[in-house]
Amino acid sequence: MAALNMPLSTYPSSAIRQGGSAIIGALLTVALVAVIAAGMLTRQSVMIRTVEAEQSRIQNSAALMAGLEASRMLLWDSLRKSRATHPGQAWAQPIGQSPSDQPEEDFYARLEDQQGKFNLRNLLRNGQLEIGQLRSFERLCQMISISDVLCQSISQRVLGSYTRFSTSVTGAVSGTFASGRDSSSAMHKPIPASLVTLRSLDDLQGMHGLSDQVLERLKRHVCILPVNTWVNSNTASAEVLAAVVPGLSLPSAQMVVAERDRGQWFAYRLEIIARMQVPTQAADALEIDVVSEWFVFRGKARRDGRQVSMEALLYRRDHSVPHVVWSRIGV
Q1: Residue 323 needs a FRET pair 20 to 30 A away by CA distance; which of 40, 57, 79, 251 works?
Q2: Cα four-point dihedral sign 77, 228, 236, 67
Q3: Strand, coil or helix: 33
Q4: Are 244 and 287 in contact (CB under 8 A)?
């Protein structure tokens, strides 16, 4: 008991130092353990979030793939029922809930007919610039307020994306994935493409004068496909019809579209010529029909606050299930 009441000054200095070092060591150990434990908890939390994100991505991707397969079946079924393609068919209806509902978990997708638009690939046919198609594109640009300079830049960008030939080559429009060149093309020296081939209009981003707003406006009326195509009169906008049908003014095209969208779809090509009053001499060269082979699938899936989007180009032909030409998934 007497030792406990001894003043601190009576303890050897070495004992005091040893006691202080032990306390400091213990504190450092506790701090180190706390840091390690906190790090382990942080890593565990990160791993849990990573696993959850991956699970959501997989589930969202699976939902999008299921929607894509359902869309392929809808296109196939519509073609079996009717040769004509129009928005009154099942393929044109959205799949899933409206994105405006914004529930915790949702899926939304729809198909868009690409042959209701002006196909930029038509500017070049059999390795040659198609003057008639260029004039149609210029008229369309004027109607949708695309400047002449930007219109010319887009045309040059398209022409630079494909192999061309220095002399005129004639031939039929290709309806397959073949190049569309006839045997006479081999006798002419090709001019190799100087630019990367365009896959979609998004590849035009960065072009001078092409803002996001202008690009969105362009997308409503213009597309780019792997081959030359005809316009579908049942899905084309009034602007596209006025651009590609000789002698058809925009007001007249708007009247035709209003009548059509009330359910008076075009059933065959001769009906188009009659209702649009196409001159006889221009009817044979009119590249417009009632059938579509090319569609774009766009879908969005959201789960646990995480969203995944998907876009795919579908090709439908000869009463077979459409196949996917390309697809891309993003967040």
Answers
A1: 57
A2: positive
A3: helix
A4: yes
- Any bridge partners for residue 223, and if so which? 119
Instruction: Output the tens digit of pLDDT for each of the chain's 331 residues.
Output: 555 555 555 556 665 556 667 787 777 777 777 777 777 777 766 665 565 566 776 788 888 999 999 999 999 999 999 999 999 999 999 987 655 555 555 889 999 999 999 999 999 998 889 999 999 999 999 999 999 999 999 999 999 988 888 654 444 443 333 333 444 444 567 888 888 888 889 999 989 999 999 999 999 999 999 999 999 999 999 999 999 999 899 999 999 999 999 999 999 999 999 999 888 888 888 999 999 999 999 999 987 778 889 999 999 987 789 999 999 887 5
Question: Tokens standing for 288?
Answer: 């417009």
d(CA 301, CA 106): 6
Determine if residue 27 is left, alpha or beta; phi over 0 gives left, psi from -120 to 50 gives alpha, anything else beta.
alpha
Report how far residue 132's alpha carbon sits from residue 122's, in angstroms, rounded to the nearest whole number: 10
Q: What gap in Å lies between CA 109 and CA 18, rounded to an integer?
A: 73
What does pTM read for this prediction?
0.77
Residue 302 C-beta-side C-alpha neighbours within 13 Å: 15
For the chain, the first-to-last Cα distance in angstroms comes to 75
